[in-house]
Amino acid sequence: MSGASNERGRAGMTVSTHEVLGREVAMPVQIRAATAFTSMVSVSAGAAQRLIDHTGLQVLRWRPGRAVCVLVFVDYIDGDLGPYNEFGVCFLVREHGRRGGGVLSDLRSLVRGQGCAYIHRLPVDGDFTLAAGRGIWGFPKTLAEFDVDHESPVKRGSLRADDALIASLEVSKGVSVPDSPSATTLTAYSHLDGVTRVTPWSMRAAQTRTRPGGASLTLGTHPFADELRTLDIGRTLMSSSVGAFTMTFGDAETV
Length: 255
Hints:
Layout: E1 2-8, E2 14-20, E3 23-26, E4 29-44, H1 45-52, E5 61-63, E6 66-79, E7 84-93, H2 103-111, E8 116-124, H3 127-137, E9 141-143, E10 145-149, E11 155-161, E12 164-171, E13 175-177, E14 184-192, E15 195-212, E16 215-219, H4 223-229, E17 236-249, E18 253-254
Parallel strand pairs: 8-9, 8-14
Antiparallel strand pairs: 1-2, 2-3, 4-6, 4-17, 5-6, 6-7, 7-8, 10-11, 11-12, 12-16, 13-15, 14-15, 15-17, 15-18
């Protein structure tokens, strides 16, 4: 359970704070050290849209009938919400104010990096981050068990809940990408308890490696895995690993 309040900071600026499980969380939330690996896969646009229709958002298509789903394992090493593991299932979507448009327009948005991320599933392995994620941002966090290797050249992660395998993901070593001198600003959507929210965040990544393809996904017997099967997951478009990154999360706003 969380509650929000506002107070004046040292410079006279209004600072938002939230109470989560008896602790105060001041905004923006800082992630000082984390690592991740991810697979961007092609999925059925129709199936993905049916999963997110209730949000009012629309998926971006990279070709007729196909959308983009991002699967990501993250190890949060040092941050305001404590250390924890996370697995995300995200769809690349249009901005909530933009509806309609053709495949060419969608593809142009993807190429220009103008797509937004709708966070559809977000299992974690910590009670505090679970409560904070759901209470502050409306992120659909649930508890799960993780077995993850972020250190080896081939990154590996598996996820279990209710004594059943959800998914296992392997990401091969990619080509080194130069570190960016500036932070990347991202827009994330979430939907919880009938409310769609948008959260801005910024990320500065280092030690990034990427490549076309390069990932292998195995689905288990959990209902979450069955939901992923309905997406008709096709080829891996791109896979990446990020050796070190920092992030800053702002407050969520209702769409």
